[in-house]
Design a protein that fits this description.
seven-stranded mixed beta sheet, 290 residues, three-stranded antiparallel beta sheet, Aminopeptidase, Arc Repressor Mutant, subunit A, alpha+beta, 9 helices, globular
Length: 290
């Protein structure tokens, strides 16, 4: 069976087993979509924008769902006190009680589904589902070129610098950490990868001159390691560099980042002599773009 056939078969089996086809999900009086929305709002509440990004819903559909939940007395939608342009959603007392029942019944259903399996079978299922979850989410990550000064880009860069500071033996000082050379105005590009609206990876391309570009600031969130996202991001950055008219890309890294060095070597990069004055760089690579 092909990957798509296996996935479709699993979807049919699983949606039936968890009651996704029922008009009243888990007997709580709401269809699965509305129940999921109650779960995502959570006890801390959420903004409408975050819910839309997290669940991949269009504005009209989300508005209709929230209106139904409001009419049922489960949520309150109001303007954010800190930013009147933004709307927040919070569960009412009735909504919080429903969410607790949703948690309890979901847990009970999951326990009943795996109960017939042996301990070893449950372990295999756990490993398989964890891998499937990671890879399906990786396949649906959105990668796009953004302005490097946007909040999502800055959050990704902050996480990148924090990781380097944590992993380098003597820490890491980003200094001014300008991103201007990765802006479209300077002939570069900054790429952000997001999942459910949250940044999970990033990277930039900057112009070095004479058809040569440099790939910089490549970062992948720890939770996404092993999903192939780093290699996918690298290929995307190479395509961006090619579209910008470059025939050769270079990059540098610290040897502490051994998984990055291995990825570059697998991707066809060859070791070269130092080409910049980056004090943290210990390995230098380049690759011709076909």
């Amino acid at each position: 069976m092909t990957a798509t056939e296996v996935l479709r078969r699993f979807n049919r089996t699983y949606t039936q087993r968890i009651g996704a086809l029922d008009e009243s999900f888990l007997g709580l009086g709401l269809p699965l979509g509305a129940a999921r929305l109650v779960f995502e709002i959570g006890t801390a509440g959420a903004t409408v924008r975050d819910l839309r990004a997290r669940l991949g819903l269009d504005s009209g559909h989300l508005a209709r769902q929230l209106r139904r939940l409001e009419e049922d007395g489960l949520v309150v939608v109001a303007a954010d006190a800190d930013d009147r342009r933004r709307r927040t959603v919070r569960l009412t007392t009735k909504g919080r009680a429903l969410r607790r029942r949703l948690d309890d019944r979901s847990e009970d259903l999951a326990e009943r589904l795996v109960a017939p399996l042996t301990a070893r079978q449950q372990e295999r299922l756990t490993e398989a589902l964890a891998t499937a979850d990671l890879l399906v989410r990786a396949a649906t990550v959105e990668i796009r070129t953004v302005d490097p000064v946007t909040p999502g880009a800055r959050a990704a860069m902050d996480a990148y610098f924090a990781e380097l500071d944590r992993r380098f033996p003597h820490g890491f000082d980003p200094g001014p950490a300008s991103t201007e050379d990765m802006s479209a105005a300077q002939g570069g590009a900054f790429v952000l990868a997001t999942s459910e609206g949250a940044p999970v990876a990033c990277g930039g391309v900057r112009h070095l001159g004479d058809g040569v570009a440099e790939i910089k600031r490549m970062w992948v969130h720890d939770d996404w390691r092993g999903a192939g996202l780093g290699s996918r991001l690298l290929r995307h950055l190479e395509a961006v560099a090619r579209d910008l008219g470059h025939g050769l890309v270079r990059l540098d890294t610290n040897r502490t980042l051994s998984e990055a060095v291995a990825m570059y070597e697998r991707a066809g990069y060859r070791h070269i002599e130092r080409y910049n004055d980056n004090p943290y760089a210990q390995a230098f690579f380049e690759k011709e773009l076909s």
